[in-house]
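Morning, I've got a small favour to ask if you have a moment. It would help a lot if you went through both lines with me. Thanks so much in advance, here it is.

***
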Amino acid sequence: MFVSVVLDPGGSDSAHELVTALSQAGFKKMQRGCWEHMDMSEPAVTELKKSIDRVTDYYDCVRLYQFPLNGMFVLTELKQKKWRRCQMRAPEEHCGTSSAAKAGEARGARQKNEPKPSSKPHAATQKSAAPAPQ
């Protein structure tokens, strides 16, 4: 699977340790703070997470982007020494209709059912033309 790691180290010591761990795992530096591996196995990702956990502290932030993992895009984040995981699946399309087209159809149906605004002013907003009594 494709794995990308984005680093936001809290200090130079942990930055050096993170770079060493990623280099040993076969990652290539693509940009400053962004490392990628094109073909990584799930057990290797698990070992990478363990080594990242060993070398980081409370102030480090690390994000892993994995695709495909069980047919999903997975974002895993280490922040304040806690791992969080978000899994996203692509929306399913039915009968060749995309979700954007369905949203447009629903919006058109709402517009058809809405009452048309009246062109006449309300009685409360009309001013009387009769002179005031003396």
